[in-house]
Structure formats: C-alpha cells, structure tokens
Automatic annotation (TrEMBL):
<dbReference type="InterPro" id="IPR003439">
    <property type="entry name" value="ABC_transporter-like_ATP-bd"/>
</dbReference>
<dbReference type="InterPro" id="IPR017871">
    <property type="entry name" value="ABC_transporter-like_CS"/>
</dbReference>
<feature type="coiled-coil region">
    <location>
        <begin position="563"/>
        <end position="632"/>
    </location>
</feature>
<dbReference type="InterPro" id="IPR050611">
    <property type="entry name" value="ABCF"/>
</dbReference>
<dbReference type="InterPro" id="IPR003593">
    <property type="entry name" value="AAA+_ATPase"/>
</dbReference>
<feature type="domain" description="ABC transporter">
    <location>
        <begin position="2"/>
        <end position="246"/>
    </location>
</feature>
<keyword id="KW-0677">Repeat</keyword>
<dbReference type="Pfam" id="PF12848">
    <property type="entry name" value="ABC_tran_Xtn"/>
</dbReference>
<dbReference type="Pfam" id="PF00005">
    <property type="entry name" value="ABC_tran"/>
</dbReference>
<keyword id="KW-0067">ATP-binding</keyword>
<protein>
    <recommendedName>
        <fullName>Probable ATP-binding protein YheS</fullName>
    </recommendedName>
</protein>
<keyword id="KW-0547">Nucleotide-binding</keyword>
<dbReference type="InterPro" id="IPR027417">
    <property type="entry name" value="P-loop_NTPase"/>
</dbReference>
<dbReference type="GO" id="GO:0016887">
    <property type="term" value="F:ATP hydrolysis activity"/>
</dbReference>
<dbReference type="InterPro" id="IPR032781">
    <property type="entry name" value="ABC_tran_Xtn"/>
</dbReference>
<dbReference type="GO" id="GO:0005524">
    <property type="term" value="F:ATP binding"/>
</dbReference>
<comment type="similarity">
    <text>Belongs to the ABC transporter superfamily. ABCF family. YheS subfamily.</text>
</comment>
C-alpha cells in the first residue's frame, strides 16, 4: 500500500500540504480532489519520485509498476501505434533482446525470450493498442500517422493511451477527460472499471468520479481528508462534517466568551487569580476550530434577460461546414425562449461546427439563417480564452463592455467568480487556464444573454466552479445549447438532446444512459463495416489520399513548425527551471550569509515559471488553430 506520513510540500513561500497523512490500499480507486492550486498535481509528482517532500515520508512498494498520463505533449516522429505500444517498456525491452539474440543466432535465448513475450501477451500488443486508439476516438487511418502530426488535444489522448497500455500496479491520471468527448469518456470509464490495479485520479467531472472511484481524498486546509464512497457520498459526508464542525465552533465560542469574561472580572483579585490562570491555560490548549466555510467561493447568477424574440434563432434546410466541405446536412432547428438543448455525437461529427454556425462564426454553406429581433447571444468556447487581452484586468474587460458601469458594481460582480481584491484589477497575463476560463464565463454572464451557446464550458474549471455553473444555468431564464462531456452538467441543465452523427442532426429520443447504449451498438456496426470501407478501386483511393495528404501538409506545416519552435523553447525553459530548482535544494542556501543568493534564485524561479506559462499559452493557441484546421479537412481523409 501507499503510505504518506506527516507530509509537507512547499512551493516558494507557500505550503501546499502541511503535516498531511493518508493511506491508499492495493486495488483502491481513489479520486484526489480540491480547489485549483491546492497541490493535487504536486502530490502526483511526489509519488512519481520527481518531487521530494519538505518533511515527512512517502512509501510505495518497491515492486510496484507505476504508469501515469504525461501532461507534456508528445513530440515523437514515431507512428501513433508504435508510440502507444512504447508505453509497455517490458515488451519493448524483450523485443530489443530478441533482435539482439537473432543477430547472434542464440536460439536457446530466443526460445526463452519468446516464452516471456507470450507470458506478457506481447503477441497481441498491436491489437490492444489499436483497441485503445479506437476507444479514445482515433480512426484506423490514424494508426500510421506520426504522433507529431496530431493537434495538441489528440496528442494528449496519445499520452493517455500510452499510460493505459503500460502494465501497472498503480495508475496516476491527471484530468484524463479534459480533451475527450463524451463518447471517449464513456469508453474510458468502462476501461477503468475493469482495471485491476490501484488508481489515483484527478478530475473535475463528478459523474466520471462517481462511476469509477470508491473513495475520495480531499485536499483542504493543507490536509488530506479521506472519505469512503464516490463523489456523491463525499458531498453528503462533508456536509454532515461541516454542520457538526459549525456546531462545535459555535459551542466553543460560547466557552471562550465565558473564559474571557471570567478572566476579565477576576484576574485582579488574589483569591481568583489561580482560577483565572487555569482558564487562560485551558484557552491556550483549546484547539481552534475554524468557522465552517460551507459556501463555495463562487456565487453568481445570470441576470434576467431583457426582451425575447420567438424564435430566437432559426435554421432552415441549412448545410453546415467549411469551404466546400459539408459536415452537417439539411439542419432544421428553431430555438425558442426556454429551449435547453444538449448536443451529442463523436468528436469531429459536427457539434462544434453547429455551435460556430449558430454563433455566426462560420457562414452557412446553404439554407436560411434567421435571428430574432431581440436576440442577445452569449457564446463561450475555448477560443474565447484566446481573445482575452492579457494586459488588461478582469475589471477592465468588463469596463470596456460597459463604460458607464460603476467600479464597485464591477468588483461585486467579479467577486462572485472569486476575483477579489487585487486580482480583479491586475493584468491576467499570468492567470492560470482555469482563471482565464472563469473570466471568459464572467464576460458572457455580464452581457445579459437570452441565448447561451456553450462549447465545453467546464474544461479547466474545478469541481466547485462546475457546481456553481450548473446551479446558475438551472435558474437561467433564457435558452441554452451546450456541448459538454460533463454528464452532471448535461443532466441538470438540458431537457432534450440532438444527436449529431453521420452528417445529420436529429432529435435523440432518450437520456444519457440511452445514448451510452446507442454508442455500444454503433461501435459494433462500425467494427463490422471497417473492412467494407476500403474502395474496390484501391489505386484511385491511394492517389486521392496522396493528393489530400499533400494539401493538408501544405496548410498545416507552418503551424506545425511554429508548434515545434515553441516546444523547443518550453524544453529549454524546463531545463533552466530544473537547474534553478536543483540549486534551491541545497540546504546551505537557507543560511543567513546566503540570503541574497537565495532571493536571486527565487526571483529567477518565478521569472522562468512565468515565461513557461506564456510559452504554454502560445502552444495551446497554436494547437487550437491546428485542431480547427484539421477538423475542417478531416472529412476528406
């Protein structure tokens, strides 16, 4: 089992964990939760041996094999299938030994190695890797593509597949669903339910946690608090604990008041001095119980929309797509006040194309598009984060939209999104991805929309913010169309679904459980039709494919080159940062005579960290451009 005893983790001057303890038993599936910045990912780095505890001990059985989903993006020229199989290091080692034994014609050794290969199911490695790729949304035609040819989100999926390919006793997954659509998430959920080892999972998706995990470890007040059961059970248990904590706190405050009153009245009297001193000692020994902060740091709602039009938007006989490529055909859709629609369908089927068409980001290829006279659109997508002005504050973003708004009104509003004090008026350049996503949502809410178009709004948000958004959407009086892999959000905010599949967008009669069953049936159909997919005229198909590949490379190469350049910069910054952090590990630095050198290193660490954040933001922007372009061309492949 994994044992953490009195662990302290410090970043700069901030303690993430302080004298924290926890035990993880073999075979357990545990979700590690907590607000952004509380140390979840740092705890993973500790378990991986990439980070040392400032105090305390962490022990993992020496024989345990640990697999983890790398957050760094794949930068390999190897084809996707080989990149995934590389996750099985024992398999690759045996293959290398086989190659060496063949060169030496050592037949006895070859027999032994082939037996080892059979023992670890090595002969089926390619089949298992293909199953992982298909489950995570890749196509069979993707197998021979190099890892570098995929956009950022798909390369993260390759990392996930590689982690799942790796035989392990402990699997560490940090936000594995962030780059998945609902189809791939449901597949991953089933895979993890069958996983035999120990699982530690970081996720903001409560339904995913509910389906996979049997225990929760909550990082709160720099401690690791364990709860039995899934996320829903955690919510109930924590609510009960906080209610009891509040009652104990109130009882304690009464006792403190009594003690202080006694001391104030009798301290000066000789006959009572001893008793007063005793009361003071009791007060000093008493463990302070902090008031229970039951409320979330997020508290916002959508303002009541002004006038409505009916319908707000209307599509008639609309073909949607890019250039000459039609992605969704013959769409007829009327959006009325109060409509609450969730879009279902695989990645690349056309959900985002629909959202962008409704938002007028892309024009219809044909058909009629009608906006209501009083339409007030609120549109959120990951691209909205790129449109933020990095040198402007949250308050300035809103002030530009409403020049006549009072500063206090803006500050009060931003407080509901947990932008308090200086954070409301400082440039957002060094904000985290989650903080920028919160600001983008705040901007949408501020504009008082009567129609919301939301494309994966919960990416980068923590559980508390996801909950606050769900509550706000439940009370929203306007219309909502949402694309999300967050089933809790969908279940609680929409009342009908459109299925975008096979070039159509049709009403889906059923709920998310029905959709899960539909997916299973669809996968069976797809697997049967795979062989029939290849054209009888193979030479013509290959010629067309070569032409298409050339066209794609021509358009994608400049972006790919820019991405590689940024990745080189990130690697260099990582190397410099690693060197600084190694220097900071020298205990002599913390002696008085080295104070100036310590301050210099800490400043250098902060500068490099900010530089890396900027580079990663640029990398994400470029990858979004790449993914958008690939989506528009994927229909041709």
């Amino acid at each position: 089992m994994i044992t953490l005893e009195q662990i302290s983790l410090q970043r700069g001057s901030k303690f993430l964990l302080e004298q924290a303890s926890a035990v993880f038993h073999p075979g357990q599936k545990i979700a590690l939760i907590g607000a952004n910045g509380t140390g979840k990912s740092s705890l993973f780095q500790l378990l991986l041996g990439k980070l040392s505890a400032d105090d305390g001990t962490a022990s993992i059985p020496q024989h345990w094999r640990i697999a983890h989903m790398a957050q760094e993006v794949a930068t390999s020229e190897r084809n996707a299938l080989d990149y995934i199989i590389d996750g099985d290091q024992q398999l690759r080692a045996i293959e290398a030994d086989i190659q060496q034994a063949e060169q030496k014609e050592n037949h006895n050794k070859l027999a032994e190695l082939h037996e080892q290969l059979d023992t670890i199911d090595g002969y089926n490695a390619k089949v298992r890797a293909e199953q992982l790729m298909l489950g995570l949304g890749f196509k069979l035609s993707d197998i021979d593509k190099s890892a570098n040819s995929f956009s950022g989100g798909w390369r993260i999926r390759l990392n996930l597949a590689q982690a799942l390919m790796s035989p392990s006793d402990l699997l560490l997954l940090d936000e594995p669903t962030n780059h998945l659509d609902l189809d791939a998430e449901l597949w991953l959920e089933q895979w993890l339910q069958r996983y035999q080892g120990s699982l530690l999972l970081i996720s903001h998706d409560r339904d995913f946690i509910d389906s996979v995990c049997e225990g929760i470890v909550h990082i709160e007040h720099k401690r690791l608090n364990a709860y039995k059961g899934n996320y829903s059970a955690f919510e109930r248990q924590r609510a009960e604990r906080l209610a009891q904590q509040q009652a104990n706190y109130e009882k304690q405050q009464v006792r403190k008041a009594e003690i202080n009153d006694f001391v104030r009245r009798f301290r000066a009297k000789a006959t009572k001095a001893k008793q007063a001193q005793s009361r003071l000692k009791e007060l000093a020994r008493m463990e302070d119980i902090a008031p229970a902060h039951i409320d979330s740091p997020f508290d916002f709602s959508f303002p009541e929309p002004g006038k409505f039009s009916d319908p707000l938007l209307n599509l008639s006989h609309a073909n949607l797509g890019y250039g000459e490529t039609t992605v969704v055909n013959a769409v007829n859709l009327s959006i009325h006040p109060g409509s609450r629609i969730g879009l279902l369908g695989a990645n690349g089927a056309g959900k985002s194309t629909m959202i962008k068409s409704l938002a007028s980001e892309i024009a219809l290829l044909s058909g009629d598009f009608t906006e209501g006279e009083n339409l007030q659109l609120g549109y959120f997508s990951q691209h909205q984060l790129e449109a933020l002005d990095l040198d402007a504050s949250p308050a300035l973003h809103l002030q530009r939209l409403s020049p006549k708004a009072r500063e206090q009104e803006i500050r009060n509003f931003l407080g509901g999104f947990n932008f308090h004090g200086d954070m409301a008026v400082e440039p957002i350049r060094y904000f985290s991805g989650g903080e920028k996503a919160r600001l983008a949502l705040a901007i949408v809410v501020w504009q008082k929309p009567n129609l919301l178009l939301l494309d994966e709004p919960t990416n980068h948000l923590d559980l508390e913010m996801c909950h606050a958004l769900t509550v706000a959407l439940q009370a929203f009086e306007g219309a909502v169309i949402v694309v999300s892999h967050d089933r809790h959000l969908l279940r609680n905010t929409v009342d009908q679904f459109l299925l975008v599949a096979n070039g159509k967008a049709d009403l889906f009669e059923g709920d998310l459980d029905d959709y899960s069953r539909w997916l299973i049936a669809q996968r069976k159909v797809d697997s049967k039709s795979t062989d029939k997919h290849s054209s009888s005229d193979g030479k013509v198909d290959k010629k067309v494919q070569r032409q298409q590949a050339a066209a794609i490379r021509k358009k994608l190469n400049p972006i790919n080159n820019a991405i590689k350049k940024v990745e080189t910069q990130i690697a260099k910054t990582d190397e410099q940062l690693s060197s600084v952090e190694t220097s900071l590990g020298d205990n002599s630095l913390y002696e008085a005579e080295n104070k100036d050198k310590l301050q210099q290193l800490l400043q250098e660490q902060a500068t490099l960290t900010q530089q890396k954040d900027q580079q990663e933001e640029k990398w994400l922007t470029l990858n979004d451009e790449l993914e958008s372009l690939q989506q528009s061309l994927s229909i041709q492949e």
